[in-house]
Amino acid sequence: MERTAVVVGAGIGGLAAALGLRRIGWQVTVVDRAPVLADAGAGISLAANGIRALDALGVGAAVRAAGRGQYTGGTRTPGGSWLARMDGTALERAVGSPIVGIPRSELHRLLRAALPPGALRTGVTVSAATPLRGDRVRVETGQDGEPPAADLVVAADGIGSRIRSALFPSHPGPVHSGSTVLRAITARPVDLRTDFELTWGRGAEFGHIAFADGRAEWHAVLNAPAGVRHPDPLAVLRDRFADWHAPIPELLAATRAEDVLHHDIAELATPLSSFVAGRVVLLGDAAHAMTPNLGQGACQALEDAVVLAARLDGVADVDGALARYDAERRPRTTAVAAAARRAGRMGQQLSHPLAVPLRNALLRLAPSGAAVRAILRHAAWTPPLTRSFSGE
Q1: Max CA-CA distance within the chain?
Q2: Per-residue pLDDT for 164 more than 50?
Q3: How many degrees, rounded to 5, is the angle at CA 79 between CA 184 and CA 361?
Q4: What is the mean pLDDT of the chain?
Q5: How far apart are the C-alpha atoms of 288 and 282, rounded to whole Å?
Q6: Are 167 and 131 in contact (CB under 8 A)?
Q7: Distance CA 260, CA 40 (A)
Q8: Whole-number Cα distances in Å, 234 to 204, 211, 278
Q9: Nearest Cα to Cα of residue 329 among 356, 302, 368
Q10: Which domains does the chain have, with CATH numbers?
Q11: Bridge partners for 52 per DSSP
């Protein structure tokens, strides 16, 4: 009999999980509380591990075609001097793929397009996932036409996951990281000399990702308490970064005020004791939301999706497969989240007037291949090889 799953959340991780489960022959329904998927968001960088996961899910080629490889750039000071340069060609030789920059909306569209019609239902708010007799799970919405009971529920409902809160009521949940991020995609192409840059000031970071169509995503990360908002955030940023090097003022000038997104950065600083509760499995930010300092949040969600499907591929013991997923994914994501937190503290969040120049001096003295080796610590991942996943 065909096995069934309900995936709660139509973000990157949820859509990837649906593709992975369908690849091994499961019938999958994806539900999302948004009445309309508005494709909000700015840009995303996908390291080789994320691209390999997308390859395993059958959409890697489409993402490469829509994205732009990051071969040039690096990290700079506000005055424009280089702290570390990026060698995308060396990285591609080492892991088979450059980092790829793509608008989040385009990545979402490509993942949705790979699902069959009718597999995605919007406007469905899930309040609980209740175990039934016979290893079945019912998704409760309080609405007519609830999804039928399933063999598996995948909670991919983000950092504020209601399902996680219900399953682990004693867990402290997400906490503020100490930083806030403002970001947007430029309204027009911008003349950029690099594919990707980060610039570190005292308690501040500005970065950009160049897209294939000439536009760019930019982000500004600032040390700030949660909840601080500005009537005109773009004007605040133009003033804050007015004397930072080009093309930062040009990127802000090419942006419409209404396109600026502002979010406080939160994380699950306390790791969960398990990603599995019965036939409910947590994935992506619902399981291990991390700070964005390594650009690994989406990549880890994509890894989750592939490993979940691979462990369930062709096995009769679903509970054993979920236990193996948990044993494989929890140590990996916990380590990456901790590394991201450390990277933020030594990068964007560093503000002490003596510590910042010391860090900068150490970065300048680092060997030329240090940046590539740092990326490889997390990007050198390959999908499990099973009947349905060749990893190619």
Answers
A1: 65
A2: yes
A3: 110
A4: 94
A5: 9
A6: no
A7: 11
A8: 16, 21, 47
A9: 302
A10: 4-49+61-68+103-175+268-346 (3.50.50.60)
A11: none
HSE at residue 332, side-chain half, CA atoms within 13 A, is: 25
Closest CA to 194 of 294, 84, 119, 104: 84
The contacts of residue 161 (CB under 8 Å, 6+ apart) are 155, 282, 285, 286
Mean pLDDT value of segment 157-185: 97
What global pTM score does this model have? Answer: 0.96
Residue with tokens 């679903």: 318
Residue 358, pLDDT score: 97
Neighbours of 325 (CB within 10 A): 21
> Which whole number is the average pLDDT over 322-347?
97
Which has the closest alpha carbon to 325: 3, 6, 4, 20? Answer: 20
Is there a contact between 233 and 261 (Cβ–Cβ < 8 Å)? no
Contact call for residues 320 and 337 (beta carbons, < 8 A): no
Distance, CA of 348 to CA of 202 (rounded, Å): 7
pLDDT over threshold 60, residue 391: no
| CA-wise closest residue to 140 among 115, 160, 166 | 166
Dig out the tokens for 24 from the structure.
Answer: 């091994």
Distance CA 272, CA 287 (A): 7
Task: Look up residue 306 and give its two tokens.
Answer: 């592939």
Q: At which residue do the structure tokens 């991919």 appear?
A: 156
Cα–Cα separations (whole angstroms), residue 2 to 13, 24, 209: 23, 10, 43
Q: How many residues does the chain have?
A: 392
3-state helix, strand, coil in the chain (%, to 5): 35, 25, 40
- Pick from 162, 233, 245: nearest CA to 198: 245
Pick the residue with more confidence: 133 or 287? 287
Backbone phi and psi for residue 145, each to the nearest 5 degrees, phi listed first = 70, 40
* C-beta separation of 201 from 353 below 8 A: no
Over residues 335-384, the pLDDT tens digits come to 999 999 999 999 999 999 999 999 999 999 988 777 778 888 888 899 99
Distance CA 60, CA 262 (A): 30
- Cα four-point dihedral sign 364, 365, 371, 377: negative
Residue 266 and residue 240: Cα distance in Å, rounded? 23
| Distance between CA atoms of residues 46 and 297, nearest Å | 9
